[in-house]
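The records we work with from here on pair a chain with its fold. These numbers are not coordinates but entries in a learned vocabulary of local backbone shapes. To see the layout at work, look at the sequence and tokens printed below.
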Amino acid sequence: MGLTLTEKIIKEHIVDGEMKKGTEIGLRIDQTLTQDATGTMAYLQFEAMGVDRVKTEKSVAYIDHNTLQSGFENADDHRFIGSVAKKHGIWFSRPGNGICHQVHLERFGKPGKTLIGSDSHTPTGGGIGMLAMGAGGLDVAVAMGGGAYYITMPKVVKINLTGKLNDWVSAKDVILEVLRQLTVKGGVGKVMEYTGEGVKSLSVPERATITNMGAELGATTSIFPSDETTLQFLKAQGREEDYVPLSADPDAVYDEEVNIDLSKLVPLAACPHSPDNVKTVEEIGKIKIDQVCIGSCTNSSLQDMRKVAHILKGKTVHPDVSLAIAPGSKQVFNQIAEDGTLAILIAAGARILESACGPCIGMGQSPNSKGVSLRTFNRNFLGRSGTKDAQIYLVSPETAAVSALTGVFTDPRTVGNMPPYVMPEKFIINDNMVVPPASVEDAPNVEILRGPNIKPFPINKPLAENIESAVTLKVGDNITTDHIMPAGAKILPLRSNIPAISEYCFTVCDETFPKRAKEAGTSIIVGGVNYGQGSSREHAALAPLYLGVKAIICKSFARIHRQNLINNGILPLEFVNESDYDKVEQGDNLVIANIRSIVENGGQIIVEDKTKGFSFEVKCELSERGKGMMLAGGLLNYTKNN
């Protein structure tokens, strides 16, 4: 029986466990990446481990999230990350060099390698044939120190692509169709592996768009084969030597199969406020729009920029629309400046932003109140744009650009012919904004530069025998990490200051939560299905930990967030009978007796609701390593103890 591409890469990198579906495995990690919103904490954790130099083949620290410098905080964090990188053997991508996933795809990603990053959209690397996964910062720190990265051995879903995309239909429409079929929780515990004749018609940037938004499925990752198209891309990047042909065996066996005929797809959009709330552009109709944003790690490649320029050439953005465009990397920015593409965008009235995440994380360009904004981004969660009552739609660059001209939601198929994109034989290559680390000999002399905003991160205590606490918050289904720990220009600069950022914890759901949690001292939170979907930000675990949260009881968890809870010693409990969710109310006093003994030795976990006078069963599925982490009070304590 043959192997899938996913299984082949796992087989080459497994260092602990067996390739048995549903069991925990440890993987050797070849590359890591961080970004500045999560990187400061990751490097503080790396320092706490006492490792002098990273053990990976390549680790890169990117500055791309907190680039709006309205105070000293972000600049101080950038300086800290740069000094840590120089001292500990990490390459440093300076502010302005571009979005981590776009730059890593261009300059560092290698087919067949493993990559984890402290950003949930790290699976972008799957577009070049990497096994690339988003992870919490602490997991990345451990991998940089030479430790394995642990995941549940995933199921592998074959997404069989046939046919070829028609004009005006793009890779964004492919992944929106997958989301429409599978939903935001349809990929949990799975890898999406793209195969079939249709793969050959997709460029590497198009493949990367699809794997990037696989994160919205809750998938462990997504991956494309490494083929002639991959080789062509790497040649154009001057990295032909990094090419390795990779594909699944002809007789590979998959756990599930999804068939998509590319020729039957039409322009799609994800409607507010979820990436799987997908409708056709035609179905949505010609609603008035206020803003268009083109960019993000999903759609900011040279291919995307040139398509948009073709649409805008000789025309002017509608007077009621604000159009913002952010090239994904300095390489893309350089290229569009030299080939005339940038001039076309400026002449049409676009507002050109720096090569960074920007509006995608609420870092500027928030829409007007109740504004309708079309974005080529990957998430449209409530409030993520910085305007709570905004209506955010996720669309392709083609739909975005055409609609920017008309002032209403417009199907791009109505505006003529779309010329084919031809990838340049050679991209502009200038890595002068990537700073190499100091040599092993010089590293001891490098000073770590810390600003006053950098505070110690909270470290949990070993798990207590009994937990008694009130339910300080009850929330519903699909609670995202943006609900738990919001982003945006006001909050992101506090990522290295847990006491300060905790004041915003869950304020999207309940503005009084931080105050009530501190007054309560200890807390239990109750949630619904797919709790913690979205970003990899471990601050969604660190801030609750600081506020005294001891356990989350919900119907089900998103993968990365569940691991972040375990990493920080917060119990991830799931209702055995989901109907019990309806019985528990905010304010109820709950008792979880003998929990330490049960975690250590096994047994039934019973939660007593002393307020209501009833009991219910929960489960906490942990590997042996997970049990050790939970008993120790988190991964950092566990690592020190072992």
